[in-house]
Design a protein that fits this description.
It is a single chain. The protein is of the alpha+beta class. It folds into three domains: about 10-110, 3-Layer(aba) Sandwich (Rossmann fold), CATH 3.40.50.20; about 115-265, 2-Layer Sandwich (D-amino Acid Aminotransferase, Chain A, domain 1), CATH 3.30.470.20; about 305-375, no CATH class. About 30% of the residues lie in helices and about 25% in strands. The protein has helices at about 20-30, 40-45, 55-60, 65-75, 95-105, 110-120, 120-130, 230-240, 275, 280-295, 355-375, and strands at about 10-15, 30-35, 50-55, 85, 140, 150-155, 165, 175-180, 185-190, 195-205, 215-220, 245-255, 260-265, 305-315, 320, 330, 340, 345-355. An eight-stranded antiparallel sheet has the order 13-12-9-10-11-14-18-16. A four-stranded parallel sheet has the order 3-2-1-4, sandwiched between helices. Helix 1 crosses helix 10 (about 280-295) and helix 5 runs antiparallel to helix 6. The longest helix is centred in the last third of the chain and has 21 residues, at about 355-375. The radius of gyration is 20 Å and the shape is globular. The N and C termini lie far apart (about 45 Å).
């Protein structure tokens, strides 16, 4: 965390597997975003002042040499010196790279120690035990009876790394095992500064062959409709201080039988940014202010008063190459014509707003089906 107060129109670097939601929020907040990501979607490029695509990053993960080259190119052509670098998804299992990026550009977000404490299960779950925070039974080796257990990749995101544990599952350096709990998935998005402010979202999975736990979407929910919210808020407060978190951080819980079990912490802006942000980009600005000044600033902002849902469309009908598409205004992550999308990969995002969370989710699900038909009918396999 570096620097002092931040003025609007400041240039800022963004790096993530998908930088679209961060770039759009930054633009709404008055920043000049320079983006490096793996997709290069049309709406990401439209929101960015300048952009570099990191081909193959989704398959290999971020690698230092091409990422540094992309960021240096963005800086060389920038209208002003960037105030720092905001990281999205793709760095959860790369603390050494995050440390290097912080030294070079100044990461606006949690430090490497906080990242390691959140993402290393050998550190994270003992901390939860020490604080008395409920979590699913977790171990580094497979259980004797795998029924009801799952295996996760350390630092994985998006749910595509999660598998059901089987008799053939083996201990691996980058995987751990966790008892499966059925319940309501709640994510608490918190800005951690000299105070803590929170938003609640309900999330769901979008099961597919070989991907039973992939992330499906999120909807904003009021505190009054969130089960066992006090347990979650107490855990957020304890861990925000204990792990020295800063900025926008997401805490993923599953609520079952009156208990909120903490699954993981993502010490960065999360996927729920699309549904919690305001028209002024207040969440992005609050993240920057929290990390640079330690102040809780501009958390509010204009709100429609409606529940907002964001749902992910996957290429469930098979691989395709995008053709010219008349994208509806309620879509995001719009791939350019000629983009190849592998079978099952994320294809686009749809939004829905309504009076209640359930109605917003229903609208988003209907739009998923509409967009799927539109895309597959206008593309070639």
């Amino acid at each position: 965390m570096r620097g002092n107060s931040t003025s609007m129109t400041s240039t800022i670097l963004i790096a993530a597997f998908s930088g679209r939601s961060l770039a759009q929020s930054a633009r709404r907040a008055g920043y000049v975003p320079l983006v490096a990501d793996a997709f290069g979607d049309q709406d990401t490029r439209a929101a960015a002042h300048d952009f570099r695509s990191l081909d193959g990053a989704m398959q290999t993960g971020f690698r230092a040499k091409p990422l540094l080259a992309a960021l240096n190119e963005l800086i060389a052509a920038a209208p002003s010196k960037p105030i720092g670098l905001v990281l999205g998804s793709g760095f959860e299992d790369k603390p050494r790279l995050v440390d290097l990026l912080d030294q070079r550009y100044g990461v606006i977000g949690c430090g490497v120690e906080a990242l390691t404490a959140c993402k290393d299960p050998k550190i994270f779950f003992p901390v939860l035990d020490e604080l008395g925070i409920a979590h699913p039974e977790t171990r580094m080796t497979p259980p004797d009876n795998c029924e009801g257990w799952i295996t996760k990749r350390i630092g994985g995101s998006g749910g595509r790394h999660i598998r059901d544990c089987t008799a053939t599952s083996r201990a691996k350096p980058r995987r751990y095992f966790q008892k499966r709990i059925e319940g309501t998935r709640i994510s608490v998005s918190a800005i951690v500064a000299d105070g803590i402010a929170t938003d609640m979202t309900r999330q769901w999975c979008s099961p597919a062959p070989g991907q039973p736990y992939q992330y499906g979407g999120a909807v904003s929910v009021p505190y009054s409709d969130t089960p066992d919210q006090l347990q979650m808020l107490m855990a957020v407060d304890q861990l925000a201080r204990g792990l020295e978190l800063r900025g926008l951080v997401s805490f993923d819980f599953i609520v079952a039988n009156g208990t909120a079990y903490l699954l993981e912490i993502n010490p960065r802006p999360g996927a729920s940014l699309d549904v919690i942000d305001t028209v002024e980009g207040s969440r992005f600005h609050a993240h920057v202010a929290a990390c640079r000044d330690g102040k809780l600033d501009q958390w509010g902002g204009s709100s429609t008063g409606l529940a907002k849902a964001a749902a992910i469309l996957h290429a469930g009908r098979g691989a395709l190459t995008l053709g010219p598409t008349n994208w509806p205004e309620w879509t995001a992550d719009r791939g350019a014509p000629g983009t190849h999308v592998p079978a099952g990969a994320p294809l686009a995002t749809v939004f829905g707003e309504a009076e209640t969370p359930d109605a917003a989710v229903a609208l988003a699900r209907a739009r998923l089906a509409e967009l799927e038909s539109l895309i597959y009918e206008s593309t070639k396999s």
